[in-house]
Amino acid sequence: MNFNFPDNKIVSEGTIQNRLNIWPNYEPIDILNPLDNLIEIDGTSYYFTYLNGADPGNKGGHSIILNLYASQSIEIEELEYGIPDLILKVSKYKKSQNPEFINQKEKRFLKEIEALKACNNQNFQNVIKIFHSGVCKVKNQKNTRYDEHLFYTMEYAECDLKSYIEANHHNLSINEKVNLCISLCEGLKELFSLGYYHRDIKPDNIFMIDDYWKIGDLGLIGDRNNVNEIDKISERVGPIGWLSPEAMNKYLCEENDFVYDHSCIIDHQSDIFQLGKVFWYIFQHNAPIGSIRENDFLCKDSRLYSIFRTMLNHSKYRRYKDIEEVIKLLKIIQLDLLRRAA
Description:
The chain is of the alpha+beta class and 342 residues long.
């Protein structure tokens, strides 16, 4: 599935910009002129804006993130965008023209699309949904030809977990936090059932969509059958501050012939470690760094602390081996909290 951006658009400064004929040869798109920002995907016309409206600031890392609004839902005369119909994610990097020499970033984007489609086929409830994917074209900066970029569209999220906690931390009960944790476990369980490891779990990659918490941004997804098919030797895989010990081992130790042998395999137990850090953040709004003790856990619930502590063991062999173990323990606490409230 393909589409073209308007010919007056270019990729510059990591996002879509309007082309100018004078230096610096680009400026942000004008969202007050929606007809200038019109694309067609699979027979439907959409107006696009930046993720933050008129602000070209981008949250997508290696991707360009845009809001899409079905053209029939926008009144040009009384312009009001409202809630996007879809989110468009475009790779910042040009698509390879030779399938035998695909670079790492393109491989990862393709792997992300593959994993999202596989989750769609299973109708998973806790992984973000993909709707379209393919190649889009945008004129190059010299205005001499079209460059091709991979893209996909996905559902719109009201917020991510970080902004949700910042806005609601005073109002969330322990029961609501436990329910949230169970939802995230279910998302990981869905990914694991297909043999995928997320490897980039952090609050910014967890989204609220129609009252469901969903895991998104699968750009570093790993495959149980091909764990290192895309990774480079000693590459840092994952978000700073949320890395598992295995991810740090890979970055520091892999193939360095050190005296001590450290596990560098980033797998489902690495995801469990990262999720444990997210759970800690949900309950007390910081991230556990280094050795933790029960008096560090301000919630003062020994059952929850025991779960989180096991998830956060430095050695993966002392963590839970299956996310289902975490779900079962959290559901016991959930039931107990409901009984107390009755």
